Amino acid sequence: MKPLKGKHILITRDERQNERWAAELAVLGAIPHSLPLIQCVTRNLTPALRETFAHLHQFAWVVFTSANGVRAFFDLYKGQPFTAKVAAVGPKTAQLLEEQGLHCDFIPSEYTGEALAKELVPLLAPHSDVLVVKGQLAKRTVCDILSSSDRQATVTEMIVYDTLCPAGAEEQAKRLQQKTFDYVTLTSTSAAVHYANVAPAAGIRAKTIACIGPVTARAAKQCGLSPLVTASEYTVKGLIDTILNDIGGMKR
């Protein structure tokens, strides 16, 4: 039995990440559709970034707040392996680090920036130098929590990529043959905002908006999107399980 048989599901992630997810949904019987609404673009290697890379050995911890941050970081960094301890916001981010030959020393119990920072604080030595790798739209939550803690960490923010709405997204949305979807999946606040901007003009409707976590769900609500279901495990697998639960299917 295929629990998602006949369900039309719209995937809005970065185009590079859509194919694998579409295949997973198809195995479960879903009819996946792709509308990339975010594009993560690695920044140019500026003098400031070169300077930070040159001093990686000075940091006690390097903190990665997203999988996209890992990709962009290693698009830019071609130096020797560094000895700092490494923290990742979740298992996917940690997996990408492992693929780059870096062991991940810490993953929080909840895959959010706030949990990452709060749970990392007790592991910091006093006055530690910490590098936080992020995109331009990421909030300062991680940096603020670490720098204001009793460990009095010195935090350096390193922005390595920009999150954009892909050129031509509006036209691609209008060309979708399916206009009403059983589920529209949102995996970031940017995707929520871009979907809210693009969908009305394209005539796209969602029976249910499926959000990867509470931060994305909050952004979706602020954009007037409903009804919502939110994954309790903030991963793609968790989001698929949430959809399965919502329709009464069995977890994989």
UniProtKB/TrEMBL annotation:
<dbReference type="GO" id="GO:0006782">
    <property type="term" value="P:protoporphyrinogen IX biosynthetic process"/>
</dbReference>
<comment type="similarity">
    <text>Belongs to the uroporphyrinogen-III synthase family.</text>
</comment>
<keyword id="KW-0456">Lyase</keyword>
<dbReference type="Pfam" id="PF02602">
    <property type="entry name" value="HEM4"/>
</dbReference>
<comment type="pathway">
    <text>Porphyrin-containing compound metabolism; protoporphyrin-IX biosynthesis; coproporphyrinogen-III from 5-aminolevulinate: step 3/4.</text>
</comment>
<keyword id="KW-0627">Porphyrin biosynthesis</keyword>
<dbReference type="GO" id="GO:0006780">
    <property type="term" value="P:uroporphyrinogen III biosynthetic process"/>
</dbReference>
<dbReference type="InterPro" id="IPR003754">
    <property type="entry name" value="4pyrrol_synth_uPrphyn_synth"/>
</dbReference>
<dbReference type="InterPro" id="IPR036108">
    <property type="entry name" value="4pyrrol_syn_uPrphyn_synt_sf"/>
</dbReference>
<dbReference type="GO" id="GO:0004852">
    <property type="term" value="F:uroporphyrinogen-III synthase activity"/>
</dbReference>
<dbReference type="InterPro" id="IPR039793">
    <property type="entry name" value="UROS/Hem4"/>
</dbReference>
<comment type="function">
    <text>Catalyzes cyclization of the linear tetrapyrrole, hydroxymethylbilane, to the macrocyclic uroporphyrinogen III.</text>
</comment>
<protein>
    <recommendedName>
        <fullName>Uroporphyrinogen-III synthase</fullName>
        <ecNumber>4.2.1.75</ecNumber>
    </recommendedName>
</protein>
<feature type="domain" description="Tetrapyrrole biosynthesis uroporphyrinogen III synthase">
    <location>
        <begin position="20"/>
        <end position="240"/>
    </location>
</feature>
